[in-house]
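hey so u asked for the seq, here:
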Amino acid sequence: MNQVLRLSLLTLALVATVACDRKAAAPAETKEGHKDEAAHGDEAMHLPLKDIRGLRFLVVPEPKAEGAWYPAEAIGDESAQAILSSPVKGIVSAIQVPPGQHVAAGAGLFTIQSPELARLKADWLSTRAKRDRAEGELAREQRLFDAQAGSRRELEVARSEAATARADEEAARLALEARGQNPETTGAVLTVKAPKAGTVTAYKIQPGQGVEAGQELGSFQAASAAIARLELPLPAPQNWQTGAMTEVRKGDGQRWKARLEGTPMTLTTDTRRLSYRLRLLGGPLPLPGTPLEVHVPLAKTVVLPQSALQQVEGTWGVFVKEGDEAMFRPVHRGPEFGTDVMVLDGVKPGETVVGEGAYLLKSLQIKRKSGGEDHDH
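ran it, structure tokens below
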């Protein structure tokens, strides 16, 4: 009996010892498993360089203040644009200048036959004749009164009629002048003239068409453009504020000083870029639509070729060389100019990055992260 009891106790002790050994070994296995996973994730970010051909490396240069020339277009500001209209109603009789043809200030653009204008001219002629008769009658009554051959009452009536005639003539004259017409020279035909040197950009009329007074009949653009319109991609240049001075040039070498009139708050609806307006200072000014270039000052920062930057899973970065391996490092991408791009943050001068062929490392990294390539641990 005692022997059986001793065997049972010995068996329980052995079972307990094995269980403890298993519990002690379990954390070690778990820790080792995590270590393997960590090693696997770390290796996925470190890419070997020895077997990849077509890579070229460059040393990150020191930051420098950059400026770049961006394409722009000369446009006329609001004061250089005009709406063509007629001050009176009538019928378009002829279009003398086609759209797009340069004309001098005051050149006739189109003519309108206007019965309304003829009536206004007739009213002025009639009232002027009545004024002449009334003033003649007043002069006669004044002579009679001075010779004591006429009465004061008849003189006062003549004075009143002359004053009324003068007022009527003045009203008829003002009716013509308010429509931009000279009473002495106007007639039944109205010629709409160019407000300044420039071109008709578009007509909204054709010969034989009836028009109303004040109706928009076309648009006119002055010959000179004082605004350079510039569109830039995101991100916006830093420290380029309203009132800043810069330089604008034309293809033939002509240059202007220019002042930034405002910074955009939203993107353009069509190109999804930032639209800037710069006022050209000095002359002679370019014609509207002339291609220009604007010098945009950029921040002092590192500049790398665009080929060095790759976008991995929505993040821009570069592949930094570390021994025989490269590691992807996110960067803050700045504005582009030409084949280069500003890197605002993420790399330091003196580091070595992949300048050409970085897309090969991008493909390799994406393949490894997706489990498409086996590699040793």
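The longest strand covers residues 291-305. The longest helix spans residues 2-45.
lmk if thats what u needed
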